[in-house]
Amino acid sequence: MALPFLSSGAKKRDQIMAVDIGARTTKAVLVQKKGGQFRLLHFAVMASPVSERKLGKDLLVPHLKKVAQEMGNRSKSVVYTLGVADSMLRQTEMPMLPVEDIRSMINLAPKQYLQADMSDHVFDCALLAGSPLETSKPDAGKGPAKVRVLVGGAKRQMVQDVQSLMKESGLVIDQIVPSLIGPVNALEHAQPEAFAKESIALVDLGFLQTTICIVDRGELKLHRTVDIGGDKVTSGIAESMSITYAEAEGIKIGMPQDVEAQLTAHLSPLGRELRASIDFFEHQQDRTVSQVFLCGAAASSETFIQLLQNEMMVPCKSWNPAAVFELSLVPEKMNEIEQVAPQLAVSLGAAIGAL
Known about the structure:
Blueprint: E1 6-7, E2 15-21, E3 25-34, E4 37-47, H1 57-70, E5 77-82, E6 88-95, H2 99-108, H3 110-114, E7 121-127, E8 146-155, H4 156-168, E9 172-178, H5 181-190, H6 192-197, E10 199-205, E11 210-216, E12 219-226, H7 230-241, H8 245-254, H9 260-285, E13 291-296, H10 302-312, E14 316-318, E15 326-327, H11 331-340, H12 345-354
Parallel strand pairs: 2-5, 4-15, 5-9, 10-13, 13-14
Antiparallel strand pairs: 1-9, 2-3, 3-4, 6-8, 7-8, 10-11, 11-12
Helix pairs in contact: 5-12, 7-8, 7-9, 9-10
């Protein structure tokens, strides 16, 4: 599932760099597709230059140059992901037409199809799994046949800012995609059987926010953002224990069992919000979520996973979005990949969609 609100229109490349700039860390991957197999050539996880989700060129241009240098300057083509604050996803029904025509209709009259005034946005779309594009026939009593469409969008100015940013960084923007799509793409590739046959929840534990996507037998049914992330948990621990933020972060990561009571207190609200999303889906669809896949930096902590599982009452586990990639990494990166892989779900998924 790829939703590039901007695409170069060029023939698909066999190699691309995907960049995910978060509030705290930047994740970048260099991926190649050869003979139907995805190959991870390089990756980097480094501190982000911004923490307030602003596109400050004075900081981001040198940062992107540094990212490209870390990637060995092996690819100028970039897929850039936009976070949930800078992009939107929505499901709607559209007349049964080719995707290109649906995309044009939404861009020409977004208010008509999305029930919101978004004239300053640009949009792209994808047919949802099971959409009857080829098999549905108009019903004389119900009007023209419809297809279910996932629509992604971003403000036109944001897209233009990213284009300008890439140009000044000496890079070529290939696609701009909503970050929510990345983990869904990656999970489909890494866990194809569960993705296609089960109702599963995909939770991305971020620094400022946490997102949950529920996929039902290959179809994205629900997505939601909760304004609780690692930053809020760390701040809560620091306040309750009267220690500095840095000390709280060190304990949270290195010795989570020592602050389990504080972690429980601050993770419980997040767990309840995620559980509420699952309850809503199960009530609406009459389907049971069988398991939860966790990604993001905190997904490497067994304590975090267990505490969230206690609240969500569904089996939870971390997953490796690079597990089915062929790894062509230098030795030090080979040693690092298993630990950092849960943080690469957005960038790996974005690369998969582009290739």
